[in-house]
């Protein structure tokens, strides 16, 4: 942010001067530089808005001397982008909605310093971004205007094409094909200008581009004029925009000399005469393309700048006569240290640049290290002299957060200077996504930890008793998954299940839980206890398939009856996985297993869904139970759920019971089962007295 824009030019509309001073104090204490003003009347407000540049207006929602509606009307009348923030003493839903409906951008609590600071900082940042965008749009329009003027006067035949149709062509292009006016070619497909024998080849190129593939840089073919005559041509493609619309720029060059000679000339234009590497001009074109891909979120690339350390000292040692040999020797050594996905160029007298394509940060760092190691302890032979030199490598990982050629070059140069300033023979690569990479490393550590927990039985099961209110004698427990921490602590699944889902590990976890749960049922049976376990499964297991086979194998291996196992699935997942669930339920029903539907009652019509899916048990969603003891409307809803469940021949279970009042209401409704911390919290032991 420029220095002049760092000061927030603030207009305060507050009834009390003390309130205005308090806001100023809050903002300044938050590290913001503000230049405040407070108009005394509507006329003064109009004068300030008309003659001065104001960044933000903070107006009291309940102001009397200058009502908020008047302030908003006057700000809107200026036609300027000036955000208005409503200040309030206390914030509630009614006030917030009224302020936003009136036209303010946000609401800030006057007496809460951190809230006022956060709102003002956010709005000022958004304002700065909007101003920057408008500036860039204006610059883009001016650049396009100049480019259009240059293209119109260019001797190269240039056209702009959208979806295969001409939308712009210069005079040289029209003349080449025999058109007198653009109206003759407007809407005409490029394919109409291709000789019939090359039409299929060009059509394939268009198909690839329509699928999002990059166009070839050049395409040799025969073109066709309006009179039917043909000529050898080379088409050059460049992605572009015209009047704000994405399109393709095509340059049609008529081949008047030997194609091999043209290719050789092009190569000479792109190469540095001394080293044979690409020259700066060509490299910058490639860098611009890489940066463009980064702005679109495509590809992974990095820029590395390489320079010999202490070059001036080296030069005085070897002499000016062998300077060229020194540069050529460095270039050869550099080329030998690069992988296949790189492009190298000579950028200056003794500076080189490497564009790493399809390289993430780790690959870019590895490439930089290989370059440095290639020169370390290497003797460079320069005629009768030998030189031992080292190099420094400074670079930047190009991404959406640093996606302009100027930024990329500046940051790379800064990193290179940092290496040289610390004595050389170093590498330093700036990665704007370092935080993201740290998060990625954290996630990968969790993935490894989950896999180790599966392999080494570092998961544990906790059990919460499910109490029958109808006198059933069997013991029922809900099964909860926990992980053992490195210090013996218990880690809840909310910490890692989302990561497990992203990395396809939920199916493995489900199978681990089911195997161990069935094993526990078998152990309880040996002690003469009839135990039913309620086990949660995820849709991921249904997508992977084969879970029903795993259940059958485990039941058989442990000699456990299928009715001892209740498999729980959230209601919200039924319609999104209906066919898989129907097939799964049919298979496990043959084994005697029951299915319970969790979070029941949250859908638009939960009972209508039961015409497609038939669970044996409905677990009423916790949102109903937490309000049950004090909300008559919720009591009516739950009573209806229980009654309909019984009419459909299903059992009703209420979970998350947290107090005696809720328990009493549920008992009166005829709920079949209850569970919750009021009765017993989940734990590693199964010691609840069901008698």
TrEMBL record:
Residues 299-432 form the GGDEF domain. It comes from the Bacteria. Residues 443-691 form the EAL domain. Gene3D superfamilies: 3.30.70.270, 3.40.50.2300, EAL domain, PAS domain. Pfam families: EAL, GGDEF, PAS_9. Residues 9-125 form the Response regulatory domain. Residues 163-213 form the PAS domain. Coiled coil: none annotated. This is GGDEF-domain containing protein.
């Amino acid at each position: 942010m420029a220095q002049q824009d760092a000061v927030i030019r603030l207009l305060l509309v507050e009834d009390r001067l003390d309130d205005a001073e308090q806001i100023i104090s809050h903002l300044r204490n938050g590290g913001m530089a503000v230049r405040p003003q407070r108009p005394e009347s509507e006329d003064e407000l109009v004068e300030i808005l008309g003659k001065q540049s104001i960044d933000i207006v903070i107006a009291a929602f309940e102001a009397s001397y200058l009502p908020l509606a008047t302030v908003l009307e006057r700000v809107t009348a200026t036609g300027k982008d000036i955000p208005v923030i409503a200040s309030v003493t206390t914030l509630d839903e009614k006030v917030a909605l009224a302020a936003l409906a009136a036209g303010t951008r946000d609401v800030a609590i006057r007496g809460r310093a951190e809230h006022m600071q956060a709102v003002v900082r956010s709005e000022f940042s958004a304002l700065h971004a909007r101003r920057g965008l408008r500036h860039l749009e204006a610059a883009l329009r001016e650049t396009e205007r100049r480019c259009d003027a240059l293209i119109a006067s260019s001797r190269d035949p240039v056209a702009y094409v959208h979806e295969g149709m001409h939308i712009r062509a210069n005079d040289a292009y029209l003349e080449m094909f025999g058109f007198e006016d653009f109206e003759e070619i407007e809407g005409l497909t490029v394919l109409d200008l291709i000789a019939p024998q090359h039409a299929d080849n060009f059509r394939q190129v268009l198909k690839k581009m329509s699928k999002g593939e990059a166009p070839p840089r050049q395409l040799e073919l025969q073109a066709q004029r309006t009179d039917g005559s043909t000529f050898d041509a080379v088409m050059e493609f460049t992605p572009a925009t015209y009047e704000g619309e994405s399109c393709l720029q095509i340059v049609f060059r008529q081949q008047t000399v030997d194609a091999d000679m043209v290719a050789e000339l092009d190569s000479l234009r792109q190469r540095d005469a001394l080293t044979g590497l690409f020259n700066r001009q060509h490299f910058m074109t490639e860098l611009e393309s890489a940066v463009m891909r980064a702005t679109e979120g495509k590809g992974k690339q990095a820029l590395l700048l390489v320079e010999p350390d202490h070059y001036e000292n080296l030069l005085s040692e070897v002499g000016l006569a062998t300077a060229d040999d020194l540069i050529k020797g460095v270039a050869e050594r550099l080329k030998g240290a690069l992988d296949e996905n790189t492009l190298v160029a000579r950028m200056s007298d003794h500076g080189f640049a490497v564009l790493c394509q399809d390289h993430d940060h780790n690959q870019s760092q590895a490439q930089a290290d290989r370059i440095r190691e290639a020169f370390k302890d290497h003797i460079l032979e320069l005629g009768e002299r030998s030189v031992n030199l080292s190099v420094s490598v400074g670079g930047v990982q190009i991404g959406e957060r640093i996606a302009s050629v100027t930024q990329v070059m500046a940051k790379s140069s800064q990193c290179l200077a940092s290496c040289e300033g610390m004595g050389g023979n170093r590498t330093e690569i700036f990665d704007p996504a370092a935080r993201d990479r740290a998060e990625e490393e954290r996630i990968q550590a969790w993935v490894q930890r989950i896999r180790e927990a599966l392999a080494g039985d570092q998961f544990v099961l906790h059990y919460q008793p499910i109490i029958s209110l109808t006198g059933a004698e069997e013991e029922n427990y809900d099964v909860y998954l926990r992980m053992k921490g490195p210090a013996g602590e218990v880690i809840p699944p909310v910490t890692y299940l989302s990561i497990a889902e992203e990395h396809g590990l939920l199916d493995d976890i489900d199978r681990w839980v089911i195997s161990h749960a069935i094993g526990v049922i078998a152990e309880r049976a040996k002690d003469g206890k009839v135990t039913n376990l309620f086990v949660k499964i995820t849709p991921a297991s249904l997508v992977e398939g084969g879970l029903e086979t795993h259940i059958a194998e485990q039941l058989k291996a442990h000699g456990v009856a299928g009715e001892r196992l209740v498999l729980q699935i959230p209601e919200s997942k039924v319609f999104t996985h209906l066919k898989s669930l129907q097939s799964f339920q049919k298979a496990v029903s043959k084994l005697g297993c029951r299915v319970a539907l969790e979070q029941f009652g949250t859908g638009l019509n939960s009972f209508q869904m039961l015409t497609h899916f038939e669970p044996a048990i409905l677990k009423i969603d916790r949102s109903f139970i937490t309000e049950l003891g004090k909300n008559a409307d919720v009591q009516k809803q739950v009573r209806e759920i229980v009654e309909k469940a019984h009419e459909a021949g299903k059992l009703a279970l209420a979970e998350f019971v947290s107090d005696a009042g809720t328990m009493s209401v549920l008992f009166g409704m005829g709920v079949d089962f209850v569970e919750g911390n009021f009765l017993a919290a989940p734990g590693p032991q199964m010691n609840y007295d069901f008698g």
